[in-house]
Amino acid sequence: MPLDIVTLPCLSDNYAFLIHDAASGETAVVDVPESGVISEALTSRGWTLSHVLLTHHHWDHIDGLTALLEAHPAKVIGAAADAHRLPPLDHAVSEGDSFDFGGETMEVIDVSGHTVGHIAFYLPQTGAVFTADSLMALGCGRLFEGDPDMMWTSLSKLATLPAETIVCSGHEYTEANARFAITVDPENPALKARITDITAARAKGQPTVPSTMAEELATNPFLRAVSPDVQRFLGMTGAPPAQVFAEIRQRKDNF
Description:
With 255 residues, the chain is an alpha/beta fold. It has helices spanning 36-45, 59-62, 65-71, 148-159, 174-184, 189-203, 213-219, 228-233, 241-253, and strands spanning 4-10, 14-20, 27-30, 51-53, 75-79, 91-93, 98-101, 104-110, 119-123, 128-132, 135-136, 139-140, 166-169, 211-212.
């Protein structure tokens, strides 16, 4: 059976995710923006935390860890390349590594760009990827440390995952991302339909995360640097996708 995934809104616009295996009782949390919301979710469900999965070192993804571990001791897993900036790790991992969780294999993907050493966690059997601030709903993270080539390489890895993959990203930025996306892909009917859905969901206070890889491939401008329509609109027909991505990222930064 697929593992249970619970989306937890944290802080003002962050998300953490609980992953639970009913058979073994193992429970992981992906990122810890704050402790209270996560602790309450564990307690209310009667789940015992066994793993903490950290995607990158930014404060809004790790600040609640110390307090959470005091109440819910667990094994902390994060990137070896980021270990010097992360809380103490019990297990440091790198691209291509995997580990057992809930009777499945959890795969580690290097998705550097937003930061160097950012990783994503992928569950092929459940069909979910936890991307934090790399691939986001209708967007991607600002390039604080990496460069466009690095981020395009990372997004291209994620784009090869099955279309039905659930994309669990780190922030509720979708409505703002949509306002930008339509400026570089204005004739995309799938994007127009998604914007309608996003607007309705947010008006009701509903989350727009997670999404699916199919949705992102069809509508996310940062994955659509290969699209002839996007390239033509930008006046970059035939340009290398990484160069098109760089133009889209620069426009977003100045939007």
